[in-house]
Design a protein that fits this description.
The protein has about 325 residues and is α/β, with parallel strands linked by helices. The longest helix has 15 residues. The protein is globular.
Length: about 325
């Protein structure tokens, strides 16, 4: 991967200065490393699942307008806060702007719809879901003007931070070159089969938080039946299962502990209370140096990116990144 273009950019020294809350409360300062994802969370039990996640101990909820379930997720957040006795500022809530709201005049409307659906007065983090704009004229890459509109949201006190998702190095370089404020966070696909270590390290060197979606790899049913794919099911991989047995963990908690150990937030999703609880136990899964080396080898042997809509959208995504 070529990071010369990014490395040559002098990031603005105060690029995060305005990414602070304008209110008097004192919310948590950064996304907890273990979060609860809501992608593909069915409406029928989304509220119950989110409330259970908060009761289990999760303090980071990841949402998006495109998931089509923010009303149900919002009810779950309200229920969980009430049942646990938490204040809003004691949890971190992220959501995302969808591609059909990239026109500057639509950005704030997209945020307001999300806040209304979630029943929240502010978001901790608002991400541009993709560097892609979709409208009547078709689909194309487009994000600079959208970003400028998102930055303006910071001054309105409706969001504490803004960031991006699914950007390539070249797109990140272009965004930074055209803005005084850099993204607070970047959400991307990360798991042992798609480790992207150099890309993660670049963000950390520039104080840009990284959140891993699909941290359990091809266990997400969206990616099809793992038994029919090019790589084995991550959670059934022999190496992962052996580490789990040695450390008294489960394969899922091994993979999540690995992600958190890199300093990235992980946002596993499950509809089931027992799995939500199981994933939370990743905080207690203690991996050793030898385990990390084994997992590192999995990234070389089974390198695979599962989420890539480039062909269906007719745009080039992830240029210069692994697994393309």
């Amino acid at each position: 991967m070529n990071f010369l273009t990014l490395a040559s950019i002098a990031l603005p020294p105060l690029s995060l200065a305005h990414q602070t809350p304008l209110n008097s409360y004192t919310p948590i300062s950064s996304p907890p490393l273990l979060g609860y994802g809501t992608w593909n969370l069915e409406k029928s039990n989304a509220s119950t699942a989110v409330a259970w996640a908060l009761k289990t101990g999760y303090r980071h909820i990841d949402c998006a307008a495109a998931y089509g379930n923010e009303k149900e997720v919002g009810r779950g957040i309200a229920q969980g806060l009430e049942e646990v006795g938490l204040k809003r500022q004691e949890i971190w809530v992220t959501s995302k702007l969808w591609n059909d709201h990239h026109k500057p005049e639509l950005v704030e409307k997209g945020l307001e719809k999300t806040m209304q659906d979630l029943g929240l007065g502010y978001l901790d983090l608002y991400l541009m879901h993709w560097p892609v704009t979709q409208g009547p004229s078709g689909t194309e890459l487009g994000y600079i003007e959208t970003w400028h509109a998102m930055v303006k949201l910071l001054h309105a006190g409706k969001v504490r931070h803004v960031g991006v998702s699914n950007f390539s190095p070249a797109q990140m370089a272009n965004l930074i070159a055209h803005s005084a404020i850099k993204p607070f966070a970047h959400q991307m696909e990360l798991h042992p089969y798609l480790q992207q270590s150099a890309w993660v390290q670049w963000h950390q060197a520039h104080s840009i938080h990284v959140t891993a979606y699909s941290p359990l790899g091809n266990s997400n049913p969206t990616y099809g039946d793992p038994s029919k794919g090019d790589v084995p099911a991550l959670l059934k991989n022999k190496a992962v299962k052996e580490i789990a047995e040695k450390r008294g963990c489960t394969p899922a908690t091994v993979v999540l502990a690995w992600g958190m150990g890199r300093g990235t937030s992980v946002i596993p999703k499950s509809q089931h209370a027992d799995r939500i609880s199981e994933n939370y136990e990743a905080k207690k899964c203690d991996l050793r140096y030898g385990d990390l080396k084994v997992i590192e080898e999995l990234g070389r042997k089974y390198l695979h990116r599962f989420n890539n809509p480039s062909k269906s959208w007719g745009v080039d995504l992830y240029e210069g990144l692994d697994g393309v």
